[in-house]
Queue: 4 jobs
Job 1
Amino acid sequence: MKDNETFELAELFKLFGDESRLRILLALQDKELCVEELAEGLEMTASAVSHQLRILKGGRLVKGRREGKRIFYSLADDHVSSIIAQGRDHVEEEH
């Protein structure tokens, strides 16, 4: 693996390393949601959700779809769900 690939992989895992971002990703696994729906469901402020979504979007983990004045967010692709599923399997695995 090249140095730049190692760096990019480390940056990807950093995105999953924040509990707020992970909670947002988990919520988006089921359906697309707007900032207000995420904020209400996760008991976060809309400002905090927006901040985390900007980071997740920059990391290509979520994408947005505009409908009128609202933007509905969803996971960027199936890889994101797979990474979360693999992490869950690892955490739930008996020692």
Job 2
Amino acid sequence: MSQKKINMALTTLVEALGARVFVDTNLEECLIEQVFAGDRMSDLLGAVSERMLIITHLANQGMIRLVELMDASAICLLNGAPPCEALLEVAKETNTPLIVSPFGMYETCGIIYELFQGGGGSVP
């Protein structure tokens, strides 16, 4: 049995979350197939892949290094907390869209889950 593959435009997720965009490089072209939510660096490193949105509270030096190493499509920080200047710079340098959800982890993931379940993305 084949599984339905959804490509959700990052702009759709930004709109649904009411997220603030801090780095909009490649935002219009960015498609999301998977979402990973977590705060442990080892889990993030092991899970990251292309067309993945990383949802995390981490906005520290460790996250800066992770952005430099990974191939994720975009990063979403939580609770309306703006990213530090260093994270903004590395996101710009690596062309990684960086958004901030006004919600916590649970609410942000719930909204995104509902979007994916509703088939709000395009099917290739």
Job 3
Amino acid sequence: MIYLLTKAFHIIFVVTWFAALFYLPRLFVYHAMSTDQISNERFKVMERKLYRGIMTPSAVLVVLLGLALLWQVPGWLQQGWLHLKLVLVLALIGYHVWCGRLLKAFAEDRNRHSHVWYRWFNEAPALVLIAVVVLAVVKPF
């Protein structure tokens, strides 16, 4: 029962983390397109609240619950699919930190990227999500 609850909450927080990973770069797209001060300040508040209030706590809980799952099923550490999944999770953590740096640049009015760049940047987590889900469900190796 504990394993199933841990797994359920791990999945729930993966969903909330990915929702934020998808939405924050989309806010960056619109923020990069904004031209007036009111919009600029509004985006700063939205981005900060999303990053600090949802995205980061979700990421921390995903990692902690993932570690709890590994503690409960240590045999997974011998399986190749998990190694690749963990590499992808580390890449997502890097993406998360990168988003934080971009957020800081916007907060300090130092953004150097166009809205088109952010549109492409926004696609990366979707590709990782597909790979992680396939690895976790299919366990190909």
Job 4
Amino acid sequence: MRLFVIPAFMLIAILPAVAGENLQLNSKLDYTSDSQDGPLITGDHMADGIAAGKPAYVILYGEGCYNSKRQARRTVSLYQKYKGRVQFVIVDLDHPLPSAQQDLRKAYYRGYIPHVVVLDASGAPVYNSSGEVEEGVISGLLDKALR
């Protein structure tokens, strides 16, 4: 029997929930500016947090951020590739957050956007960094987490 040690802050973030589904990129995004174009990603169950037992991809972003828009495009592409196998949690920092997402913000957000977190199936972070990250880097981490 293997025991996993999960930090206390992770116990708050891992909730029985269904992560985002049917994710779509806002078709009105202007990738040439930091204009406020509304939510970058839309979908179902957008207010949910992370459920235990599956790897997760979390993005924390601001709607008026050029880099967040570019990372949102990568996020939706990754969602298409991994839907059903990886949880996708979208944290839009420009709106009031539900409690599950407030806990994720407290645990990972350090004041810079976009911020991407990849968690393995046990809830341990395998990637936790601000700034844009290439799709191939995240794919490699998710593939490894799914083994």
